[in-house]
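Protein: Transport permease protein
Species: Paracoccus suum
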Amino acid sequence: MVRIVAALMLREIATRYGRSPGGYLWVLAEPMAGIALLSFIFSITLAAPAIGTNFPLFYASGFLPFAMYMELSGTVARSIAFSRPFLQYPPVTYTDALIARVLLNFVTQIVVCGMIFTGIDLFYGLHTVWNIPALLEGAVLTALLAVGVGVMNCYLFLEFPIWERIWSILMRPLFLISGVFYLYSSMPMAAQNVLWFNPLVHCVALVRRGIYGTYDASYASPAYVLIVSGVLIFFGMLLLNRHHLRLLER
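Structure follows.
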């Protein structure tokens, strides 16, 4: 199993990053461009970010967990479709394809986040006191949520192809309702009561708590994120286990 997963990871590195100009540079450049754009737009209209004094660090604390969720959930959702030719061989299972994509993309996103946070801190001379356990907690919960959504969509995309388009439409407002460029506590109570049920809001809050020592993220519930992620992973894997052979024959 280890050799199969490693081979699938190497294949994805070669096909996804090795054949495109820039390769892994784009993985780093895309979030940097998003953070720079947010910082530029809001620095024109605001005297200071919602917390702290540095615009890039504040928007990185929201954009990077959001980008990790989107990237990881999307790649996991297409794991079986991406590795379909190899799944015809008996030793290769759909779980191998899922594990390979989860490991590769999670490690990639962690490295990207670490490089960008460190780069911002050094460039602006912020001397940030990082709360590493809180950052890791936020990153792991974000990854678990992404895996849960990705595994469920892995089945739904194959069973109902139209769902992939519907899902992409449903996800468009997610950037606006996940606390990426604002603080949950700054929203009206009516909005907070609705936004709380978005598990990504909790993930972003936990990451911000790891960066800003004075940030009150008491509303964030790791247990809620774990429950949502666990339910999605359980039912997603159950559906894949029962139907993956039929879906591969399509």
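Remarks: The chain has a mean pLDDT of 91.
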